[in-house]
Amino acid sequence: MTAQWHILGVGAIGGLFACRLQSGGADVTLLSRDCEEASRELVLKHTISERFHFPQQTITSNEDSIEHLLVCTKAWAVESAIKAVAPRLSATSVVVLLCNGMGLAEAVAPLIGEAQLVVGSTTSGCRRSSEGKLIVSGDGRTQLGMLDSSPAPTWLSPWRHGVPEFEWETGIRSVLLGKVALNAVINPLTALHGVTNGNLMQPPLRAITEDVIKEVQSLLCSADDGEIASALPARVRAVCNSTAANHSSMRVDMESGRRTEIDAIVGWLLSSFTPHPPATPILSELYDAVKKREPEVLGA
């Protein structure tokens, strides 16, 4: 029997994974809050251009139970999105969160009843062109897992067949935490200074980048995550160098007048990660600066 997947949050990453899961053999339906068309075409451009066609429905237009749900919304939109679709979930449903930030699983768990909750991380690169095409900049690596370290489930076939460099990760918390630590360094600095990732490794921003790395390391060490802390400087350098010309998602959001994901990244590290956080004056200042800019870009 063909696996049924619904995609909630069909931006660049959501669209990419809709195409990948369809390629892996799944029947994929796109969910929208206000779609007017019963179907939708996505054009994926990597080494070649491919066209994918999907049925599309509004979240509340159909009462059929959702078998597998992939959520790729912005972090700040996850809870409201899940609440809207929750009536269609059952005890046998699977909900996969492929979103930036931490604290999302804890917020979502009470909203989905007995459905299985899976969290994930991807380093895949994808952006939407001015013509609406999905431009893939890198296959990346995609990891899914459960926070209770459960072994791989039986429904992974479309992921294994359609997603490059996919793996089930029993230690997914460390994967997510490592990504949040990385994003906490790169995203606010690139957004506030309006620079590409590679600029963080060059004067005049290299010094403050290294200071932010040290503050994030101190937070990690205070929570006994020393291994992630030790790996952070090299990881920041590697990502900034390998994606030197890239614009971080936070910079793109800020410059496009959209709300950022600062709360689920830096905000979570500062307020929810550890009960007795060390002083992090620079990181706290960056958080406040991004939050101050948000009302401006949102027109408040």
Can you tell me about this structure?
This protein is α/β, with parallel strands linked by helices and 300 residues long. It has 2 domains: 4-170, Rossmann fold (3-Layer(aba) Sandwich), CATH 3.40.50; 174-297, N-(1-d-carboxylethyl)-l-norvaline Dehydrogenase, domain 2 (Orthogonal Bundle), CATH 1.10.1040. The protein is 40% helix and 20% strand. The protein has 10 helices and 11 strands. The protein has helices at residues 12-23, 78-85, 104-108, 157-162, 172-193, 206-222, 226-242, 249-255, 262-271, 281-297; strands spanning 4-8, 27-32, 39-45, 49-58, 68-71, 94-97, 116-122, 125-128, 134-138, 142-145, 166-168. An 11-stranded mixed β-sheet has the order 8-9-3-4-2-1-5-6-7-10-11, sandwiched between helices. Strand 10 (142-145), helix 4 (157-162) and strand 11 (166-168) form a beta-alpha-beta unit. The longest helix has 22 residues, at 172-193. The model has no long low-confidence stretch (mean pLDDT 95).
